[in-house]
Amino acid sequence: MLSERVQRIGFSATLKISAKAKAMKAEGIDVIDLSVGEPDFPTPLNIKQAAKQSIDNNFTKYTANAGIPEL
User: Among 5, 25, 31, 35, which lies 20 to 30 A Cα-Cα from 62?
Assistant: First the structure.
């Protein structure tokens, strides 16, 4: 049995939007779904190559909180 507090947790707004986008797609509506962060296309080759290069160069740590100025 779940606690009363857990039972009061509402449905995720993000998941509601995602479900609506999927329903609209099923109706034939052209939708760009940005709700849950899962693209519906493969990662472009140049991004894959850059990610591999970053790993090979040990560029795998968090950046400074100010970000990377070059970007």
Answer: 35
